[in-house]
Amino acid sequence: MQLNGFYLQILSGTLVTIKLALCAAVFGMAVGLIAASLESIPNRWLRYVAASFIFIIRGLPEILVLFFIYFGAAAILSHLLDHYVDISSFAAGVIALGLIFGAYASQVFRGAFLAIDVGQIEAGKAMGFGRVQILTRIQLPQAWRHAIPGLGNLWLVLLKDTAIVTLIGLSDMMNEAKLAASTTHEPFTFYFIAAVIYLLITSVSQKIINVFTHHANRYI
Amino acid sequence: MIAYLPQLMSGLLVTLMLMLASAGAGLLLAILMTLGSYSDKWLIRKIIEAIVFFIRGTPLLVQIFLIYYGMGQFAWIRDSFLWFLLREPMSCAIIALSLNSACYTTVILQGAIQSVPRNEIAATEAIGMRKWLAFRRIIFPRAFRIAIPAYSNEVIMILKGTSLASTITLLDIMGMTQRLIGETYQTVEFYLIAAGIYLVLNGIITSIFAVLQKWSAIPQKD
């Protein structure tokens, strides 16, 4: 099998894929935390906003969300600002994948906070902890433990979803594989290489997630 | 917008066809693979494990491209009877989607079978049921109920996955939307229409499974 020097390109594409996934995960965590806290606030309207955001994003195909942000949001902004606005494909990818990650992550966070026994919070109050202290000393460390497996799964889903950004022209790994495939007329070889790299990244991620899970549960 | 209704309807039809065919074939394949993963033969178990690992670890888009573009690389496939399937985007999309769904569903079914209470399986052995009879009468119906909520999510994933068929030239809802946007430049409007259609389909799937769950629930005595 001759790779004809395409391996360097595929390697640089792999870095783009990983960078994109990391950025989207960080953005998505923020979105998820905001959505989860909006959902738990007693104000009915805020709750509706958060719930409908989650419902819509979870119900739409990933490429529709991505295209809506890349083409649709650019069209809206151009219209509003009265001059042509171009959203970079990397930024569109981070926003779209981050929103999707966040919509699912909010459910993970909510479940993680609900999984903490109310007695723990009451105990905190009985000990004279303030609200912030209860959050940072009691709720967050325990919620984290419950959230890790769910967030780990979402990370794996996110890694695989990054493949779609190739459709808006970002030079990620998939795009490099596509280029190599069409130049050499060996599509199977190069798409298979891409598949193996995805497998490698997800397997390594799984190992890291296991370490995190183990560490979070070390006193139990 | 009304003028484009026939085109959107034909897109909807393609999406529904992709979804129903893939969900049906995927479920059938998943049941076979689940049975196979409890086989006595080491090789069969390992092969199924490897397929599930490969499919669940790679993006659906790569799988679709591997089947649609990749298979043409080999002359022996182009010469074989399979070529009439593998050269059509429709059948390629259905093959990729059903394989993908089968692997995820296999994991759901395995998990459901694992969570059938041990004492019920022990009871089937105690009254002398054969393995297959116990599976058919006790384990499968129990696992089926446990699997419904997760499987309903999986069907929604299939629906979302069908949109990737637009990347191999199929005119499903997504593909049709892209084409209409190309013709009319009404980007936001058509994306919103497509989003509305997908959300309605989601709602239909969710309510079908809610009915199924109610129908299959064990009647509770008061």
What this model shows, in words?
- The complex is a heterodimer of chains A (220) and B (222).
- Helices cover 81% and strands 0% of the residues of chain A.
- Chain A has a single domain (17-170), classed as MetI-like fold.
- Chain A contains eight helices and no strands.
- Chain B is an all-alpha fold and 222 residues long.
- Chain B has ten helices and no strands.
- In chain B, helix 7 (118-126) packs antiparallel against helix 8 and helix 9 packs antiparallel against helix 10 (187-216).
- Chain A binds chain B through residues 55-56, 59-64, 67-68, 71-72, 75-76, 160-164, 166-167, 174, 178, 181, 185-189, 191-192, 194-195, 198-199, 202-203, and chain B through 53-54, 57-63, 65-66, 69-74, 156, 159-164, 166-167, 174, 178, 181, 187-188, 191, 194-195, 198-199, 202.
Average pLDDT, all residues of chain B: 92
CATH topology of chain B: MetI-like fold
Name given to the CATH homologous superfamily of chain B: MetI-like
Name the CATH superfamily classification of chain A: MetI-like
Question: Which architecture of chain A does the CATH hierarchy give at level 2?
Answer: Orthogonal Bundle
Structural class of chain B: mainly alpha
**Total number of strands of chain B:** 0
The overall pLDDT average of chain A reads 90
Query: How many alpha or pi helices of chain A?
Result: 8
According to CATH, what is the topology of chain A? MetI-like fold
Domain count of chain B: 1
- Give, in order, the helices and strands of chain B: HHHHHHHHHH
Biggest sheet overview of chain A:
none
Number of strand elements of chain A: 0
* Count of separate DSSP helical elements of chain B: 10
Provide the β-strand percentage band of chain A: under 5%
